[in-house]
């Protein structure tokens, strides 16, 4: 699996620029009323299980639908203050009794059109451990609900480079974004490989 290999000063600039917003990723956003908050919490637990947390709840993008960013938090990882350590996350849109999975972040990250930020599917047995930060801006400074992801290494260190997933209003879905290429299309059928646990 690939978390975007374009990483230099961009993420560092993003972490500094977005520091006030990053703090909000630790708790649920309550931009709506208590009814919306309860709807978000119910949807989060239904999709991710009873241990799910709500990191954002409200109209997260220009589409104007109620959405929730939910996650299962890692409890034994000492994460930097700017992010939340998670083993799984999802963005769900909620309308009446309908719940739509906009992004599902488990071992691979997917939207309804395919895989996001992936060149291949890693069939190793390791479970993912993400450092997740949610902001209202992309790395190029444009407005748009965005999450930044890094992997945690085996010792809890930040490993590799950052991936950015943001709302693309023209496409009507969340996609990978880079400040060089802009929005990147999904991968429909990535190859399977095994990078760890080989005999």
Describe the structure.
The chain is mainly beta and 199 residues long. 14% of the residues lie in helices and 42% in strands. The chain contains 3 helices and 13 strands; from the N terminus they run αααβββββββββββββ. The strands form 2 sheets. Strands 1, 2, 3, 4, 5, 6, 8, 9, 10, 11 and 12 form an 11-stranded antiparallel beta sheet that branches. It has a two-stranded parallel ribbon with strand order 7-13. The radius of gyration is 16 Å and the shape is globular. It starts with 8 loop residues before the first helix and ends in a 6-residue tail after the last strand. The model is unreliable at 4-30 (pLDDT under 50).
Instruction: Using the alpha-carbon principal axes, give the shape.
Output: globular
Number of strands: 13
Could you tell me the strand content as a percent range? Answer: 35-45%
- Which series of helices and strands comes N to C? HHHEEEEEEEEEEEEE
**Mean pLDDT across all amino acids:** 82
The end-to-end distance, rounded to whole angstroms, is: 20 Å
| Computed structural class | mainly beta
State the major sheet: 11 strands, antiparallel
C-alpha Rg, in Å?
16 Å
Estimate percent helicity: 10-25%
Q: What low-confidence regions span 5 or more consecutive residues with pLDDT below 50?
A: 4-30
How many helical elements? 3
């Amino acid at each position: 699996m690939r978390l975007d290999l374009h990483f230099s000063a961009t993420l560092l600039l993003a972490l500094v620029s977005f520091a006030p917003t990053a703090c909000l990723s630790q708790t649920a956003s309550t931009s709506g009323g208590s009814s919306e908050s309860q709807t978000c919490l119910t949807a989060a637990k239904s999709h991710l299980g009873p241990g799910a947390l709500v990191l954002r709840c409200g109209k997260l993008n220009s589409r104007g639908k109620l959405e929730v960013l939910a996650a299962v938090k890692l409890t034994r990882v000492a994460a930097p203050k700017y992010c939340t350590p998670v083993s799984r996350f999802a963005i769900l849109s909620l309308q009446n009794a309908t719940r739509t999975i906009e992004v599902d972040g488990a071992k691979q990250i997917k939207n309804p059109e395919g895989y996001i930020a992936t060149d291949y599917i890693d069939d190793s047995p390791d479970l993912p451990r993400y450092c997740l930060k949610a902001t209202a801006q992309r790395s190029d400074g444009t407005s748009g609900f965005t999450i930044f992801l890094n992997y945690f290494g085996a010792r809890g260190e930040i490993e590799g480079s950052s991936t950015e997933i943001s709302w693309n209003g023209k496409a009507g879905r969340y996609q990978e974004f880079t400040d060089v290429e802009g929005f990147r299309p999904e991968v429909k059928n990535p190859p399977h490989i095994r990078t760890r646990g080989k005999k």
